[in-house]
Amino acid sequence: MVFIPYKLDVSLYRVPYLTILVCLVSLATFMSQLKSDAAYERKATAYCTRALEPNLAAILRSVADAGDTRNACITVYLRLRNSPEPEPVIAEMAGAARSQVFYRDREQNLNYLRSKLSRGFADFEAQVPKPLTETLQYNPLQYSFLRMISSAFAHADWEHLLGNLFFFFIFASAVESALGSMHFAVSIVLMAVVSSLAYSYSVVAGNALPSIGLSGVAMGMMALLTTLLPRARIWCLFWFLLWVRRFSIPVMWVSLWFLGWNVYDLNHDDGSSNIDYMAHVSGALAGIVLGVLYRLFSPTRLNGLSMNTA
Prior knowledge:
The structure is a single chain. Helix content is 65%, strand content 9%. By secondary structure, it is mostly helical. The strands form 2 sheets. It has a 3-stranded antiparallel beta sheet. Strands 2-5 form a two-stranded antiparallel ribbon. The longest helix is centred in the first third of the chain and has 33 residues, at 17-49.
């Protein structure tokens, strides 16, 4: 069974240039991510394939509990690279590699293990640049305004990218026509910042996965459009086996369904999902607040749209 909302029954009086630009920038960013990931994988593999210093190689194999030095090298250094604070992790790894004895004194041996791991990781960092995704993603434990914005344009895979851009374009094109490019751009920034901050406040250190994607902004645009034009309709495609139907329903129904679905998932998330439900819900709430403000203080902006409510 497939149910896809795909087109607002709204006439636009402006070409949504900024909406199109956001989609193009997101696409270009993702293509750059793919290229960067491929280069990163080659460099990491090449670094770990070369002959490492014997003592370091033995320590890496012990830490990773692997017989192959290359795989152990990649496993250990990627874990350190993905850690917000590598030093405590290095200390933990050194403790796990106590079976590697280079000095009789236990404390001296532990310091040696830490030193080898630390120097080896520093060399890896210097010779294997981070992939673009790590440069763009938002770490919820580090409040970076630039990362809040850049992370919105980065995506994990093609499905993530195309799904976000599809729903973003449906609603954002109408929002841009109503608000104008300047207010629309400010709305995007506000939604990206609010969804990132909400995610930061909701996570605990152990589950603080980096966040990427335009979904928080896309949910915000859906909620903003629905608040501005609650009686607008949206065309949907329903497909079940051989039965295919095309029909329009009030956009309010679609928005409530998506928001309710994400609220449910947020409340029942056991931490095993990589989906940032908090960004979805908080982005939608930001869109609702903006929509109410525009309806109260700038209702004439809706003159940029006409709709069929039949």
